[in-house]
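hey m, so remember when u said the tokens were messed up on ur end? i reran from scratch. heres the input so u can diff it against urs
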Amino acid sequence: RHLKNLFDGTRAGRMMGRYGEQNGNVLAGGIAYYSLVSIAAGLIIGATAISFLAQYVPGVRSAYFTVLQNAVPGVVGSGNGALVSQNTTLANTATGLVGLFALLLGANRATAFVSGLRTGVVTMLGRAASNPLTGKLRDFAALVAIAVIVIAGMALQVVASGATRWLRDLINVSWVSVGLLRIPAVVVGLFVDMLFVAVAIVVLGHARAPWRRLWPVLLVTAAVIGVLRLASSALVGSAASN
């Protein structure tokens, strides 16, 4: 009991206590639910767009079936009796309607995700809730910011990967590992995650704190996000080979 009291007085103990008192697990579960629904709608939108491209662009069509065959071997075949025939029509009116519905659903769920994120952060920080109009404006600004961050992060990752390959070929030294050369890409990912956390805490949560107290929070949280992403990628990769 004495050790527990000592721990409860530390910053980590106060954090855990705050998380439990404010039902942080319930808030996190709701945010995760909205994000999963948004991802599902996004996948349908992506699949719809690729289907239309593959239907009318021969190069995209062959690449589409190649990727599908590599992802799920044995599914694609040349005959009409195959589960997915290469002669099939990929896109039609129904496909466009499904994509349009997914677009509307995705936009609605993305807004709900940002609203849930704002509610959770405001609750955990103990800030007063904004009026509905101000809250929606913050949601919209955060949604645009997140979209820009994601697109910029993808572009930076592509540039960093290309620079890594160029530098590796330029050095042409066997002892220079690829992992060492990927450090710039890791740094870029960490910076992008810090921007996302800043949007969640400062824009949505309306947090007011000195920069010297805020940047360690952004750094540690972004590092945890990166570790979780790497772990989940490794798990999915190991499952895909089974």
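this time it looks ok to me. The beta strands are 76-77, 84-85. if urs says something different then somethings off w ur setup not the seq
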